[in-house]
UniProtKB/TrEMBL annotation:
SUPFAM superfamilies: Carbohydrate phosphatase. This is 3'(2'),5'-bisphosphate nucleotidase CysQ. It comes from the Bacteria. It comes from Leptospira ellisii. Gene3D superfamilies: 3.40.190.80, Fructose-1,6-Bisphosphatase, subunit A, domain 1. GO terms for biological process: inositol metabolic process; phosphatidylinositol phosphate biosynthetic process; signal transduction. The keyword Transcription does not apply.
Length: 281
Protein backbone atom coordinates (compact mmCIF):
# COMPACT_ATOMS: atom_id res chain seq x y z
CA UNK A 1 0.00 0.00 0.00
CA UNK A 2 1.20 3.49 -0.89
CA UNK A 3 -0.41 5.89 1.64
CA UNK A 4 0.52 8.90 -0.49
CA UNK A 5 -1.96 7.76 -3.16
CA UNK A 6 -4.78 8.43 -0.69
CA UNK A 7 -3.67 11.93 0.26
CA UNK A 8 -5.65 13.87 -2.35
CA UNK A 9 -9.07 12.31 -1.57
CA UNK A 10 -8.34 12.65 2.14
CA UNK A 11 -7.66 16.38 1.78
CA UNK A 12 -10.69 16.92 -0.46
CA UNK A 13 -13.05 15.14 1.92
CA UNK A 14 -11.76 17.15 4.90
CA UNK A 15 -11.97 20.51 3.11
CA UNK A 16 -15.54 19.83 2.00
CA UNK A 17 -16.45 18.75 5.53
CA UNK A 18 -14.89 21.99 6.71
CA UNK A 19 -17.56 23.95 4.83
CA UNK A 20 -20.27 22.00 6.64
CA UNK A 21 -18.62 22.61 10.00
CA UNK A 22 -18.11 26.33 9.35
CA UNK A 23 -21.72 26.84 8.29
CA UNK A 24 -22.96 25.27 11.53
CA UNK A 25 -20.33 27.10 13.62
CA UNK A 26 -21.69 30.42 12.33
CA UNK A 27 -25.28 29.50 13.20
CA UNK A 28 -27.32 28.71 16.28
CA UNK A 29 -26.98 24.99 16.92
CA UNK A 30 -28.00 22.46 19.52
CA UNK A 31 -25.55 20.65 21.76
CA UNK A 32 -26.18 17.10 22.95
CA UNK A 33 -24.45 15.14 25.71
CA UNK A 34 -23.12 11.71 24.76
CA UNK A 35 -22.68 11.01 28.47
CA UNK A 36 -19.88 11.82 30.86
CA UNK A 37 -20.05 15.53 29.99
CA UNK A 38 -18.94 14.72 26.44
CA UNK A 39 -20.69 17.12 24.03
CA UNK A 40 -21.60 16.43 20.41
CA UNK A 41 -23.24 18.64 17.79
CA UNK A 42 -24.82 18.36 14.37
CA UNK A 43 -21.47 19.46 12.94
CA UNK A 44 -19.69 16.40 14.39
CA UNK A 45 -22.30 14.05 12.96
CA UNK A 46 -22.63 15.61 9.51
CA UNK A 47 -18.89 16.08 8.97
CA UNK A 48 -18.18 12.52 10.08
CA UNK A 49 -20.84 11.12 7.74
CA UNK A 50 -19.55 13.21 4.82
CA UNK A 51 -15.93 12.11 5.19
CA UNK A 52 -16.83 8.46 5.77
CA UNK A 53 -18.97 8.37 2.63
CA UNK A 54 -16.30 10.10 0.52
CA UNK A 55 -13.68 7.56 1.58
CA UNK A 56 -15.86 4.48 1.01
CA UNK A 57 -14.27 3.88 -2.40
CA UNK A 58 -10.92 3.12 -0.72
CA UNK A 59 -12.46 0.03 0.92
CA UNK A 60 -10.44 0.88 4.04
CA UNK A 61 -12.51 0.84 7.26
CA UNK A 62 -13.15 4.18 8.95
CA UNK A 63 -13.03 4.42 12.73
CA UNK A 64 -14.76 7.64 13.75
CA UNK A 65 -15.38 9.09 17.18
CA UNK A 66 -19.02 9.52 16.22
CA UNK A 67 -19.62 5.90 15.16
CA UNK A 68 -22.66 4.53 16.97
CA UNK A 69 -20.73 1.27 17.30
CA UNK A 70 -16.94 1.37 17.44
CA UNK A 71 -15.29 -0.89 14.88
CA UNK A 72 -12.51 -3.30 15.78
CA UNK A 73 -9.75 -2.25 13.39
CA UNK A 74 -6.98 -4.14 15.17
CA UNK A 75 -6.84 -6.86 12.50
CA UNK A 76 -7.24 -4.60 9.46
CA UNK A 77 -4.18 -4.01 7.24
CA UNK A 78 -5.04 -0.30 7.34
CA UNK A 79 -7.67 2.01 8.80
CA UNK A 80 -8.83 5.59 8.51
CA UNK A 81 -9.04 7.13 11.99
CA UNK A 82 -11.29 10.17 12.14
CA UNK A 83 -12.36 12.83 14.59
CA UNK A 84 -14.86 15.04 12.72
CA UNK A 85 -14.33 17.80 15.29
CA UNK A 86 -11.48 17.44 17.73
CA UNK A 87 -12.21 20.10 20.32
CA UNK A 88 -16.01 20.01 20.38
CA UNK A 89 -16.03 22.00 23.63
CA UNK A 90 -14.12 24.78 21.88
CA UNK A 91 -16.53 24.57 18.94
CA UNK A 92 -19.53 24.85 21.27
CA UNK A 93 -18.09 27.96 22.97
CA UNK A 94 -17.21 29.58 19.61
CA UNK A 95 -13.52 29.25 20.35
CA UNK A 96 -11.74 28.56 17.03
CA UNK A 97 -9.12 26.24 18.55
CA UNK A 98 -10.60 23.03 17.08
CA UNK A 99 -9.90 20.96 13.98
CA UNK A 100 -11.06 18.18 11.70
CA UNK A 101 -8.59 15.32 12.12
CA UNK A 102 -8.21 12.47 9.61
CA UNK A 103 -5.36 9.96 9.85
CA UNK A 104 -4.44 6.78 8.02
CA UNK A 105 -2.85 3.97 10.00
CA UNK A 106 -1.10 1.14 8.16
CA UNK A 107 -0.21 -1.99 10.13
CA UNK A 108 -0.54 -0.02 13.35
CA UNK A 109 1.61 2.95 12.29
CA UNK A 110 0.29 6.46 11.67
CA UNK A 111 1.37 7.16 8.09
CA UNK A 112 -0.79 9.97 6.71
CA UNK A 113 -2.55 12.92 8.30
CA UNK A 114 -4.82 15.83 7.45
CA UNK A 115 -5.69 18.45 10.07
CA UNK A 116 -7.86 21.40 9.10
CA UNK A 117 -9.21 24.30 11.14
CA UNK A 118 -12.20 25.67 9.19
CA UNK A 119 -12.29 28.96 11.13
CA UNK A 120 -8.63 29.96 10.86
CA UNK A 121 -8.45 28.15 7.48
CA UNK A 122 -5.18 26.46 8.43
CA UNK A 123 -4.51 23.20 6.62
CA UNK A 124 -1.71 20.81 7.58
CA UNK A 125 -1.25 17.57 5.70
CA UNK A 126 1.52 15.09 5.07
CA UNK A 127 2.78 11.55 4.74
CA UNK A 128 5.66 10.02 6.63
CA UNK A 129 7.70 9.25 3.53
CA UNK A 130 7.25 12.69 2.00
CA UNK A 131 6.99 15.46 4.58
CA UNK A 132 4.41 18.08 5.54
CA UNK A 133 2.61 21.02 3.92
CA UNK A 134 1.20 23.92 5.95
CA UNK A 135 -1.11 26.41 4.28
CA UNK A 136 -3.48 29.22 5.29
CA UNK A 137 -6.29 30.08 2.88
CA UNK A 138 -7.72 33.57 2.40
CA UNK A 139 -11.16 31.98 2.09
CA UNK A 140 -12.51 28.41 2.17
CA UNK A 141 -11.14 26.74 -0.99
CA UNK A 142 -13.54 25.52 -3.66
CA UNK A 143 -10.98 22.97 -4.84
CA UNK A 144 -7.45 21.93 -4.00
CA UNK A 145 -4.62 20.25 -5.87
CA UNK A 146 -1.47 18.71 -4.43
CA UNK A 147 0.23 18.63 -7.81
CA UNK A 148 3.60 20.36 -7.59
CA UNK A 149 3.42 21.13 -3.85
CA UNK A 150 6.67 21.15 -1.88
CA UNK A 151 6.74 18.97 1.21
CA UNK A 152 8.90 20.05 4.15
CA UNK A 153 10.33 18.53 7.30
CA UNK A 154 9.92 21.47 9.64
CA UNK A 155 11.18 19.59 12.70
CA UNK A 156 14.72 19.08 11.41
CA UNK A 157 17.89 19.25 13.49
CA UNK A 158 18.26 23.01 12.92
CA UNK A 159 14.84 23.72 14.40
CA UNK A 160 14.96 26.28 17.22
CA UNK A 161 11.88 26.78 19.40
CA UNK A 162 11.24 26.68 23.13
CA UNK A 163 7.44 26.57 23.25
CA UNK A 164 5.36 23.64 24.51
CA UNK A 165 1.65 23.51 23.69
CA UNK A 166 -0.53 22.10 26.47
CA UNK A 167 -4.23 21.71 27.18
CA UNK A 168 -5.98 24.72 28.67
CA UNK A 169 -7.86 22.34 30.99
CA UNK A 170 -4.66 20.68 32.16
CA UNK A 171 -3.11 24.08 32.78
CA UNK A 172 -6.10 25.12 34.93
CA UNK A 173 -5.78 21.87 36.88
CA UNK A 174 -2.15 22.72 37.63
CA UNK A 175 -0.73 19.54 36.13
CA UNK A 176 2.39 21.31 34.85
CA UNK A 177 2.86 23.74 37.74
CA UNK A 178 5.81 21.85 39.22
CA UNK A 179 7.13 20.26 36.03
CA UNK A 180 10.98 20.35 36.12
CA UNK A 181 11.39 21.62 32.57
CA UNK A 182 14.85 22.57 31.29
CA UNK A 183 15.66 26.28 31.54
CA UNK A 184 14.14 28.55 28.92
CA UNK A 185 11.07 26.50 28.07
CA UNK A 186 7.62 28.10 28.17
CA UNK A 187 4.15 26.57 28.25
CA UNK A 188 1.34 27.86 26.03
CA UNK A 189 -2.23 26.60 26.47
CA UNK A 190 -4.42 25.86 23.45
CA UNK A 191 -7.54 23.84 22.63
CA UNK A 192 -7.74 20.72 20.45
CA UNK A 193 -4.86 18.21 20.62
CA UNK A 194 -5.15 17.60 16.86
CA UNK A 195 -4.80 21.34 16.23
CA UNK A 196 -1.81 21.53 18.59
CA UNK A 197 -0.07 18.60 16.90
CA UNK A 198 -0.71 20.14 13.49
CA UNK A 199 0.92 23.38 14.60
CA UNK A 200 3.88 21.49 16.03
CA UNK A 201 4.29 19.53 12.78
CA UNK A 202 4.24 22.86 10.91
CA UNK A 203 7.10 24.13 13.06
CA UNK A 204 5.04 26.69 14.97
CA UNK A 205 5.97 25.16 18.35
CA UNK A 206 8.50 22.58 19.48
CA UNK A 207 6.36 20.14 21.43
CA UNK A 208 2.88 19.26 22.59
CA UNK A 209 2.35 17.43 25.88
CA UNK A 210 -0.79 16.00 27.48
CA UNK A 211 -1.04 14.14 30.78
CA UNK A 212 -4.48 12.69 30.08
CA UNK A 213 -5.62 9.69 28.00
CA UNK A 214 -5.78 10.05 24.26
CA UNK A 215 -8.07 8.13 21.92
CA UNK A 216 -6.64 7.12 18.57
CA UNK A 217 -9.00 9.47 16.73
CA UNK A 218 -7.67 12.40 18.77
CA UNK A 219 -4.09 11.99 17.64
CA UNK A 220 -3.61 9.65 14.65
CA UNK A 221 -3.50 12.46 12.08
CA UNK A 222 -1.38 14.70 14.31
CA UNK A 223 1.14 11.97 15.12
CA UNK A 224 1.45 11.10 11.42
CA UNK A 225 2.17 14.78 10.72
CA UNK A 226 4.76 15.09 13.48
CA UNK A 227 6.55 11.99 12.19
CA UNK A 228 6.29 13.21 8.59
CA UNK A 229 7.85 16.51 9.67
CA UNK A 230 10.88 14.74 11.13
CA UNK A 231 9.71 14.62 14.74
CA UNK A 232 8.90 11.84 17.18
CA UNK A 233 6.42 10.94 19.90
CA UNK A 234 6.02 8.91 23.08
CA UNK A 235 3.09 7.57 25.01
CA UNK A 236 3.99 8.80 28.48
CA UNK A 237 2.95 5.67 30.41
CA UNK A 238 5.04 3.27 28.31
CA UNK A 239 7.74 5.68 27.12
CA UNK A 240 7.36 4.20 23.63
CA UNK A 241 6.13 5.57 20.29
CA UNK A 242 2.35 5.61 20.05
CA UNK A 243 0.79 2.44 18.58
CA UNK A 244 -2.42 2.57 16.56
CA UNK A 245 -5.16 0.08 15.64
CA UNK A 246 -4.94 -1.29 19.17
CA UNK A 247 -7.83 -3.11 20.81
CA UNK A 248 -8.12 -0.50 23.55
CA UNK A 249 -7.95 2.40 21.09
CA UNK A 250 -6.32 4.70 23.63
CA UNK A 251 -3.07 5.52 25.37
CA UNK A 252 -2.03 7.33 28.53
CA UNK A 253 -0.43 10.72 28.01
CA UNK A 254 1.50 12.08 25.05
CA UNK A 255 4.63 14.04 24.25
CA UNK A 256 5.34 14.75 20.59
CA UNK A 257 7.39 17.10 18.45
CA UNK A 258 10.98 18.01 17.64
CA UNK A 259 13.07 14.96 18.53
CA UNK A 260 16.01 16.66 20.26
CA UNK A 261 13.64 18.85 22.25
CA UNK A 262 11.56 15.83 23.19
CA UNK A 263 14.62 13.96 24.43
CA UNK A 264 15.77 16.94 26.49
CA UNK A 265 12.38 17.56 28.10
CA UNK A 266 11.74 13.84 28.64
CA UNK A 267 15.09 13.37 30.37
CA UNK A 268 14.36 16.28 32.71
CA UNK A 269 10.66 15.71 33.37
CA UNK A 270 9.63 12.24 32.19
CA UNK A 271 9.35 10.83 35.71
CA UNK A 272 7.25 13.82 36.78
CA UNK A 273 4.96 13.44 33.76
CA UNK A 274 4.33 9.78 34.61
CA UNK A 275 3.54 10.66 38.22
CA UNK A 276 1.00 13.29 37.13
CA UNK A 277 -0.93 11.21 34.59
CA UNK A 278 -4.68 11.65 35.03
CA UNK A 279 -7.81 9.97 33.76
CA UNK A 280 -10.50 11.91 31.92
CA UNK A 281 -12.48 14.35 34.04
Amino acid sequence: MNPLSYLKPAIESVLEAGKIVLEIYNSEFQVYDKGGNDPVTEADMRAGKWITERLAFTEIPVLSEEDSEKKDISQSPAAWILDPIDGTREFVHKNPEFAISLGLSVQGEARLGVVYNPVTRELVYGETGSGVVYEIFDSPPESYSIEGVSFSRFLNDDFKQNEILISRTEEKEGLFRKAPLPAGWKLVSLGSIAYKLGLVAAGKSALSISLKPKNEWDICAGIALVRASGGSDLEIRSGRPYPFQSRSGRGEGLIAGHSKSLNSVWEAAGTYFRSELRDWS
